[in-house]
Amino acid sequence: MQFWWVNHNQTARQEVEGQYLWSPKTESNGARSEFYKNMRRASPGDLVLSYSGQAVRYVGRVTDFAFTAPKPAEFGTTGSNWSDEGWLLPVFWVQLARPVSPKAMIDVIRPLLPRRYSPLNPGNGAGNQKAYLAEIAQDLFDTITAVTTFDAVTLHRAGANSLSFEVVNDLLEDTVEQRIASDLTLDDTVRRSVIQARRGQGKFRANVEAMERCCRLTGVSNPALLIASHIKPWRLCASAQERLDGANGLLLTPDADLLFDRGFISFHDDGEVLVSPRVDREDLRRLGLDHLNWGQPGFGDVGASWNANAFASAQTRYMADHRANVFVA
What we know:
Helices cover 31% and strands 20% of the residues. By secondary structure, the chain is of the alpha+beta class. It folds into 2 domains: 3-162, ph1033 like domains (ph1033 like fold), CATH 3.10.590; 167-325, no CATH class. The strands form 3 sheets. Strands 1, 2, 3, 4, 5, 6 and 7 form a 7-stranded mixed β-sheet that branches. Strands 10-11-12 form a 3-stranded antiparallel β-sheet. A two-stranded antiparallel ribbon has the order 8-9. The longest helix has 17 residues, at 165-181. Residues 293-305 have low confidence and may be disordered.
């Protein structure tokens, strides 16, 4: 388990009410931020302290891995310089019985603050500018929560979160589908094909079948057992062409499709499978995927794909996008 601290003065109300955290993927100038990278490092079960208005007011429990999502509409004009696409991290929040002022106890917590990427100024206890999600030591988490109380039972259950990947993905795809359905720049045939492609059907499937013959993870080749799955998610595609492009698709069994869509597996350009180091190997064994040679842990375990054919050049840009924006590395 890891422990985190989020400074979200501008968006605390929306994020607490919505049971999530959201950040851009980069700073406004395109620079990478450790605080934004941490959104992808957080794991289900991790605990988070919410700091806003110069006090820690909530404690949260991460309920799912972060995934790509547009900036929440409820932010309004807040963060007008932020990118419209970022990371959404589902978090179940409970309120502290009494807010905790870090400034009032800075002498106690100063030695516990991270030396790099601290959420607070160690001199005066004020929140650091540009700090968003920071990793902290358990000692700091325990010291803050020791001077107040919260409903630990409800926090542990964390069952009321309505922003799981599956729920949000459906909501986002519904919005995209509505936009496509009203797009007068598309003729009726293309519009119908693009909407069918959301579920791996119609022209998209035919285009994928022209390039792929079987599931690259399991080797299953019976079309009745295969799903035409987008490499770059349907909801994130920039055009009708990307949504219908056979190079943007794989044929996968239902279990493999779920693992791929959620980012628990991906592929190298040479066809070898990447397995997220944060997926339970025992769960994979139960799914019958223990034929993979897991290799050594690192960016992702590399194993021999059942169908280790290299991807066509037209497919590699989509696979690079999947590794960067979907794969839980």
